[in-house]
Amino acid sequence: MGAVKGLAQSSRPARSGDRQPARVGSVIRWGGERARAGPWRADGSVAFLVPASGPPSVAFVRRCLDVLAAQGFGRVITGALSPAEQQGFLEAGFGVHERLHLLVLARSHPLPPLPPSPRLRRAGPHRRRQLLAVDAACFSPFWRLDRAGLLQVLAATDRRRLRVALGAGRRVGGYAICGVTAGSGYVQRIAVAPQLQGRGIGKKLLLDGLYWLRSEGAQEVAVNTQLGNEAALALYRRAGFQEAPSGLCVLSAGLGLGHG
Ligand SMILES: CC(C)(COP(=O)(O)OP(=O)(O)OC[C@H]1O[C@@H](n2cnc3c(N)ncnc32)[C@H](O)[C@@H]1OP(=O)(O)O)[C@@H](O)C(=O)NCCC(=O)NCCS
Questions:
Q1: What's this model's pTM, rounded to 2 decimal places?
Q2: Strands, DSSP E only, in the chain?
């Protein structure tokens, strides 16, 4: 689920010496630690919480839960976390919401040639509305992107590339978002309308993104996907991605009494 990984990125600088839990924009800061937080897409009662300064301490996670509970959220979901990042959340009472494969492509791995078709395009507001319809057809309600979610994904990395492929009637039939921050590249989202799958559109979107990420200096590229998503795994493996031995987990917790 590329978008979840995307939420794990932040380019905001730390503000040392801030001892009060405070919500500055969408960043919760406490001591030297910080995390990005905000409403989770369509469900306003759920907040996302993504560590933005390395593995968080259990004390910081508890402070974040207090801040989010005070803002009226009933539940919290994290970004896709590595085992080291999970520790503080688990100690604060989070449980596993979903396990994900993590796949990585090293810069040294040669890329397959970029197929000539389909031609890819930029996406202005009109095409962005159409790509959200493709997204809705490809993902379950919880993971679907709405307009705000799309903007969050686009804002999650320092530089990003969004390209669409057009299908019948020149409507958007597939799209991909890739991003890069500090030499690390991410395939954040890729989806092809169900009726257009299996025609090489996903491959073109992925390779276009990978060539761009390399041109932007990405030393390696990471992507995550749900267990059992065989089409996505095939797409990534054929491009040269290899599975990391330890996957990622999305964790969640209720914000009832006694979370801390
Ligand atoms: C994953 C997805 C983007 C692939 O797009 P696509 O246009 O169908 O893929 P392509 O036709 O370009 O196929 C790319 C490669 O993957 C392989 N592949 C695609 N679907 C496959 C499947 N269901 N089973 C096995 N292999 C598959 C193809 O054989 C092809 O290999 P090749 O390069 O050797 O020919 C598409 O299935 C999709 O949108 N799924 C729903 C959204 C999703 O899960 N996105 C990824 C989230 S991480």
A1: 0.87
A2: 18-24, 27-31, 33-40, 43-51, 75-81, 95-106, 120-121, 159-166, 172-181, 184-192, 220-226, 242-243, 248-254
